[in-house]
Amino acid sequence: MTSVLRISGLRASIPGKEILRSIDLEVRSGEVHAVMGPNGSGKSTLSHALMGRSDYEVQGGSVTIDGQELLGLPTWRRAQAGLFLAMQYPIEVPGVSLEDALGEALAALGRDRGEVHELVAAEARGIGFDERFLTRPLNVDLSGGERKRNETLQLGVLRPKFAVLDEIDSGLDIDALRAVARRIEAATSEHDLGVLAITHYSRLLHELRPDVVHVLTGGRIVATGGPELAQELERTGYAAYGGDSEEDAPAPVEPRIADPYADPLA
Ligand code: ADP
Ligand code: MG
């Protein structure tokens, strides 16, 4: 069955600052959409607003999967509805192993948690993720690139309907990038995964070929086109779209333990 992730008129802010100014996007099963934009354009805010991070306030709009409204639902319910986020800066979760976390997630999806070990091992082999990392607490003392592989592994095990990948390419060397892109591409053809791949470099898109490319600057989608749009951006940068092409801003320091998706009411 074809599913549809539909984002319409999505507006989001942090206290004192409007970041997303009416985003419209529609992704179908099996499609790969790229969202490209310079630093600070609101790419990560889009991913957080979709997944329900509580420090981003949604002012308006709607986000649905097959007609089910996700806005207002806690993060775990959005995951149950079929949405997955690979975070730009995956957090460390001391005391919780990858298999424990994925076992719980499988159970919440009504799947057999007894399969978790085998699924994790198979995914790890597929993307060249060293098995000795699997017994560590989630992301603890993993490098940036290892965390990205870890996110990809979770995606492979959970088989969501739609995956938002926030700079899944950052920190990956060329071989790891290829392995990760292949895994994601396989999911689009084998399980009909729909992908929203957020990146500011086109190198990911040489490996993970997008059907549609969107340009995000200043919290707005200012252009939409085919793969040729990514090639054009590679040549011209974002200047023509009202954004600059500054190099990587320093990575924000994420707290070691705090759960960014914690329910503020819990
Ligand atoms: P991108 O991922 O495209 O680099 P972000 O969505 O992370 O951009 O950020 C968009 C803008 O909002 C930036 O100017 C950033 O500094 C600001 N911003 C995002 N999240 C926060 C936050 N939690 N606190 C303060 N400023 C934020
Ligand atoms: Mg970002």
What's a quick, concise take on this entry?
The protein is of the alpha/beta class. The chain is built from eight helices and twelve strands.
CATH architecture: 3-Layer(aba) Sandwich
Give the proportion of residues in helices. 25-40%
Multimerization state: single chain
What is the number of helices?
8
Word description of this protein:
This protein is of the alpha/beta class and 266 residues long. The chain has one domain (4-221): P-loop containing nucleotide triphosphate hydrolases (Rossmann fold, 3-Layer(aba) Sandwich). Helix content is 32%, strand content 27%. The chain contains 8 helices and 12 strands. It has a 6-stranded mixed beta sheet with strand order 6-9-10-3-11-12, with helices on both faces. Helix 4 (116-126) crosses helix 5 and helix 5 (144-158) packs parallel to helix 6 (174-190). The protein is globular and about 50 Å long. The N and C termini lie far apart (35 Å). It binds adenosine-5'-diphosphate and magnesium ion.
